[in-house]
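Notes from the pairing session

We agreed to fold both candidates in a single pass and log them together. This is the raw record for the first candidate, unedited. Please don't reformat it; downstream parsing expects exactly this layout.

Candidate A
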Amino acid sequence: MKIRRSGQVISLVAGLGLAGCATQGSVALPGHAIPVMESAQLIGPVDGEQSMPISISLKAQDPSGLEALLKDLYDVQSPLFHHYLTPEQYQARFGATDDQVQKVVSFLQTQGIQVSSISANNLLLGAHATAGQVQRAFGVSINNYLLADGRMVFANAGAPSVPADVASLIEAVHGLSNTFHYRPMFVRSPADPARHQSPRANGNCGTSNGGFGPAQLTGAYNLASLNLTGAGETVAVVEYDGFVTNDPACYFSGEGITEPTITVVGIDGGGPMPREGWPPCQVTRSPARRAWARLSSACSLSHFTMGMRL
């Protein structure tokens, strides 16, 4: 079978001796319990022919070394500070080996599961299967449930299990349930004019919506210890929508920061596009604010605005 990986096509041969989980003894994969299911109402088993795309995370090599490297990358006292690895270097040091990848792929293929992609770092496999194939391969029942919030979901009734030699390579199996519901976690504070008064309120810029300033962002992200001002640097801010062109000037002037030279670079049709109904100083989104707040001494700022092709 041919599987595409990062622009290359590699040939993987299905292995022998992995006809089923029971032949070598099954080992349960930890970390797959879903707390919300404790109060869910069982509706019944899923349709075995239901399409169920899954992905399998493989274990990284040398996890302690990876943790140490991550600390060094952001430690200003370390000689490795900001010495990032290329994808090839990361794969060589921390990714699964080709033999380990093939062992997992071979197991999936013997269960009728077709592997469609392998990440460049050898740590994530994408696959297509039916619910029946997934249940047989991982020795787990997948059912439909009604959650307390009224959502109908499917989820695994227990931990997935695989042969011991395969289990030692797998970090997690994703796609056995669709219970996770992403939602914003911010909490809007009560209206308080005193708290939300901004120094950017002036005749030219209008009144802002109480955005954060440099001191607040420095404290929130614990940046003071880095002692970085942006002196002599060019910083790029990528926007996926338009912005009010005088908004950066409003921000810098209101915060008492000398405005750097700003260059707008349109990509695929992007550009400064003021939106109807947006008053000045209302559109400075969080990524831009975080960058601007660190630019007290920066030489220049490039705004890349991306056009979208549908």
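Candidate B (folded immediately after A)
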Amino acid sequence: MVKHTVTHAKQNILLLNVAMVKLTMVCSNRSVPSLLRSCLIRGLEVFWNVLVKLGMPQKVRCIAGHSIHWLIRRYQDRFVSEYTRFFRNPPQLDALIHLVQQLNVGSHLRLAVLGCSTGAELYSAIWTIRSARPDLNVTSVGLDISPSAIKTARDGIYARNSQEMREVSDEIEEAMFEDRNGFLKVKECVREGVTLMEGDACDPQLPVTLGPQDIVIANNFLIHLSNQQAEACLLNITRLVVPGGHIFVWGVDLDIKTRMLRSFGMEPVTYNLEVVHNADERAREVWPLKWWGLEPLDKSRPDWNIRYCTVFWKPLNAELALSNSLQGA
């Protein structure tokens, strides 16, 4: 019985691979008409839902899911979102605490948050660092391409029922905010040393504009970019960080991240890796049918510790790899 089930699963895997290869060949041209793309995406949705209802083996669903997601990423319409909220990924903030706890007393820490949107993630990171290490001298910069988002971040004022405040507990609200006529304003002790700028994280001059940083956070905006833009942006992000510094990158195409950061010589920091990856329940729920969906963590992959990691350390020899990348660009 077990042997029959395994054989049946292998046959299904083969059939699914053949089907996906044919779909890829049919849709290999990027200029596929809108109606055909819509039909393709709808067909993929039906196909995936049938697999789930039939209770296909996990291995089959995983292989099919990767093929489906490849097509979804290629043909599903994308949009730019300013959605953000305070303390969006607490396990990743725990990893941030883990890193800053290793700094010497009174150290100067330079922090950049790219794609900072309305400032929620920037202020969450600063509050987390200063709560854990009040002795540190923290200067930070937030960058976003949206003028309206940067204005909100500069004001630091949010409605109590806004999307940004959804995960804020009463205890943190009292410690981090002050009441302003029914609205909540980030306290000056949190905003101290913060610079907010309108700008493009893909701009090749970004390292000159912002200057060297000890930690760069680039979460949840690279996934909205084209592959070429995301690659250029990852190069920028890595150039920003000083040797010995760290980057946080979450919400990005995993194939691009794995390939680029490995070529740059960046090393994964695996503290809290699985918990951080699994924190975005919504992104995991919609995979593989949304371009921003997040695949299940698969430890059978030889590159799993890089692919699913969101925190990376920049060793001294990474500068040479980055120089080579720039020359080849």
